């Protein structure tokens, strides 16, 4: 990946994702390869004197997805990141071959059916709709959601934030989840190549943007 990158806005970040195709949000295990690594110093996380915080990168996620044409989800070793729409068909094609659609009647199948019926739901709404309301259910449900994202069956449509009495957004926000077919259309998830052809294409591309990375590091991102 090119050195000397200094991202100052969500628009610049979206353009960079379109340029390189794939970008984890936080630590990827490869030095310098994450959105967190390439933003300008004044866009990094900072604690405020009043106990609050400011993190421009975190606030850019929504606009990068909704306005920047990037796909977002937990795609890279169960960690979140961005994929350009140009590379999504190949990535989806390969991942769905290794993470196939859930078995009919399974919990993951019920989660997908709920999303298809509802269109999109924030995580806690989806969890309640699927009956995961008991104690210690949250982490278990989050595991299902992560696996479905790794299989490219669920993506993040946007981020929803609570508002204070002054109607100002606050907090870390909630992911608004949906299926890629509902968000982008079925054609966006179709690929004319075989999964193996898509894999080889992905591997060569990752080698080109991360020439100093070991192949095992690249495979961890692709698989």
Task: Note the main attributes of this structure.
alpha+beta; three-stranded antiparallel beta sheet; 44% helix
Topology record:
Elements (H helix, E strand, L loop, with lengths): L9 H11 L1 E3 L10 H4 L7 E2 L5 E2 L1 H11 L3 E7 L2 E6 L3 H11 L8 H12 L2 E2 H7 L7 H14 L4 E6 L13 E5 L1 H5 L10 H15 L5 H8 L1
Antiparallel strand pairs: 1-5, 2-3, 4-5, 6-8, 7-8
Question: Can you characterise this structure?
Answer:
- The chain is α+β, with helices and mostly antiparallel strands.
- It has helices spanning 10-20, 35-38, 56-66, 88-98, 107-118, 123-129, 137-150, 180-184, 195-209, 215-222, and strands at 22-24, 46-47, 53-54, 70-76, 79-84, 121-122, 155-160, 174-178.
- Strands 1-5-4 form a three-stranded antiparallel beta sheet. The protein has a three-stranded antiparallel beta sheet with strand order 6-8-7.
- Helix 1 (10-20) packs across helix 3 (56-66).
- The mean pLDDT is 93.
Give a brief description:
It contains 10 helices and 8 strands.
* Structural category: alpha+beta
- Poorly predicted ranges (pLDDT <50, ≥5 residues)? none
Radius of gyration: 18 Å
Strand proportion, as a percent range, falls in 5-15%
Shape summary: globular
Helix percentage: 40-55%
Tally of DSSP helical segments? 10
How many angstroms does the end-to-end distance come to? 20 Å
Kindly report the spatial arrangement of strands forming the biggest sheet.
Answer: 1-5-4
């Amino acid at each position: 990946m090119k050195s000397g990158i200094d991202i100052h806005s969500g628009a610049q970040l979206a353009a960079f994702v379109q340029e390189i195709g794939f970008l984890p949000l936080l630590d990827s295990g490869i030095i310098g390869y994450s959105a967190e690594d390439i933003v300008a110093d004044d866009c990094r996380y900072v604690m405020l004197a009043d106990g609050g915080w400011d993190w421009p990168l975190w606030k850019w996620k929504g606009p990068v997805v909704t306005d920047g044409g990037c796909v977002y989800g937990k795609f890279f070793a169960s960690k979140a990141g961005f994929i350009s729409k140009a590379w999504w068909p190949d990535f989806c094609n390969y991942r769905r071959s290794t993470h196939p659609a859930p078995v009919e009647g399974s919990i993951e199948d019920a989660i997908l059916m709920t999303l298809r019926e509802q269109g999109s739901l924030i995580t806690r709404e989806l969890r309640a709709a699927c009956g995961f309301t008991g104690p210690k259910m949250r982490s278990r449900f989050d595991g299902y959601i992560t696996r479905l994202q790794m299989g490219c069956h669920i993506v993040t449509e946007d981020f929803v934030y609570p508002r204070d009495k002054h109607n100002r957004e606050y907090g870390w926000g909630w992911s608004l989840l949906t299926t890629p077919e509902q968000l982008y259309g079925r054609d966006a998830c179709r690929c004319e190549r075989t999964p193996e052809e898509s894999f080889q294409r992905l591997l060569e591309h990752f080698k080109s943007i991360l020439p100093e990375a070991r192949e095992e590091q690249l495979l961890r991102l692709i698989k």
